[in-house]
Amino acid sequence: MSQTQSANDAVDTLSNTERTYNFSAGPAVLPEEVLRQAQRDLWDIDGTGIGVLEHSHRDATIDRVFEEAEKGCRELAGIGDDHAVLFLSGGACQQFAMLAMNFLTPGRTGDYLVTGNWARTARSYADSYGSTHAAYDGTDCVFDHVPAPEEISYSDDPVYVHYCSNNTIYGTSYAEPPRTEAPLIADMSSEMFSRPWDYSAHAMTYACAQKNLGPAGGSCVIISRELLERTNQGLPKIFRYEDHVAKGSRLNTPPVFTVYMMGLAFRWISEQGGVDQMASRNREKAGLIYDAIDGSDGFWIPHARKDSRSMMNINFRTSDPELDKRFIQEAHEHGMSALKGHRSVGGMRASVYNAFPRQGCVQLAEMMREFARTNG
Ligand SMILES: *Cc1c(COP(=O)(O)O)cnc(C)c1O
Q1: Whose CB has fewer CB within 10 Å in the chain, the N or C terminal residue?
Q2: Given its phi and psi angles, is residue 179 left (phi above 0), alpha (psi -120 to 50 degrees) or beta?
Q3: Dmax over Cα atoms in the chain, in whole Å?
Q4: Model's pTM, two decimal places?
Q5: Residue whose CA is closest, atom 7 of ligand 1?
Q6: 187 is catalytic
């Protein structure tokens, strides 16, 4: 078999209709076009005769990959020169620690809006580094909503305010960023570029790749140059944002493949019509499932309060954990996988990120109606 022929065979995989509907919260579904492009580039990228995994991170091909990823990110985020874009190794938890190390100045306090497990973890990572304050804590209502302005009480002059825009585990999200004068930092891991968001108004936004942007192993970080000037001194270079900015995200060997995949995902989003188009699609897709919940006469119990519903992660259950189990099993038999909710909430969770096909939402909603009819 010639080299070209075997490369073509690699691309000739199952079409999307033959794939399983993957409701996983992360790592999660990726756009079919992106996966097919990656299959080709794994063999030979840009006609170099070398695959994307095999190039030096300092050669011209990977320069191009990084430049395109940054350009795509800037376009979707709508940010200018006063923000830097970084692609860093490690996931969102690494950012929980790094942002505290860099910006939680001795003697100052970082404020956290605790709206779920991740938001709480972000705070606990910062706790081991400096002083924090929970400006909101939704533990008592099992994180069924994000706070209204009157539920938030900031500390005096916080060094930053950190929030999680979409709570992956509880299926809640903010309609708009919380209001504050302090530098605003958002963990957008499970929704970056799923809807319009005012990135330029944030001191920092970040997302691990494996929810909505690409494979695991790296994060996309958008950070204002003003915030960068306030970096704590004395940190090892590898943990300092400024040093990563100075070296164009290649201070050391970065997760090249993850960055390459994020670049393709950004291009795919643009080609689909950008974040506005993503948002209207996502709203419609999630709406199909929420309609099945709302139209079930209480058979399906949603976790999130209506005013805080996420378009990315949808949590629901019945009144009987045994029925939930059966639903998950039957869904699996019908080609819908990974619907089991996080252990801290139970029930079901349907994660329907940008790349999740609409037809999968149609199919799930149909099955939910049928299941409610026969078991209600
Ligand atoms: C998944 C997730 C994280 C954790 O990401 P890691 O890459 O595993 O560190 C943090 N925050 C949110 C909102 C997430 O969805």
Answers
A1: N
A2: beta
A3: 69
A4: 0.95
A5: 91
A6: yes
